[in-house]
């Protein structure tokens, strides 16, 4: 077993609970952690034996394009897509951050973390 992580992905997107947020957009961050068996890739040195980082990034980027009101919903969509597209992934953890959320004061980011494992 092992873990693949894509940390510090940043996107400008149009998410938010308030309509205004969905119009003006904001910067968001995603950290993604994939639990999977890395033994075959380690032994063979073949990309086909592991999860392709480019494909993971593409999945996240596509989900970031579809507006969501809540970070929880956005994270849930990312989990669903990864588990659907990568049947050999055993578990996924995603952290979704919104930079400078409109809270009426100083807050560098709001973040939710969601995790799911296959039964």
UniProtKB/TrEMBL annotation:
Q: Which GO terms describe its molecular function?
A: dihydroneopterin aldolase activity
Q: What is its EC number?
A: 4.1.2.25
Q: Which is a GO BP term held by this UniProt record? A: folic acid biosynthetic process
Q: Which domain of life is it from?
A: Bacteria
The protein's matches in Gene3D superfamilies, at most eight in alphabetical order, are given as: 3.30.1130.10
- What are the UniProt keywords, alphabetically? Folate biosynthesis, Lyase
Q: Which reaction does it catalyse?
A: 7,8-dihydroneopterin = 6-hydroxymethyl-7,8-dihydropterin + glycolaldehyde
A GO CC annotation given for this chain: cytoplasm
Stretches assigned to the Dihydroneopterin aldolase/epimerase domain: 4-116
Annotated TM spans: none
Q: Which pathway does it take part in?
A: Cofactor biosynthesis; tetrahydrofolate biosynthesis; 2-amino-4-hydroxy-6-hydroxymethyl-7,8-dihydropteridine diphosphate from 7,8-dihydroneopterin triphosphate: step 3/4
What top-tier enzyme class does this entry carry? lyase
**UniProt key word ATP-binding:** no
Q: InterPro entries per the record?
A: Dihydroneopterin_aldolase, FolB_dom, GTP-CH-I_C/QueF
To which protein family does this belong? Belongs to the DHNA family.
Give the protein's biological function: Catalyzes the conversion of 7,8-dihydroneopterin to 6-hydroxymethyl-7,8-dihydropterin.
Q: What is this protein called?
A: 7,8-dihydroneopterin aldolase
Q: Which gene encodes it?
A: folB
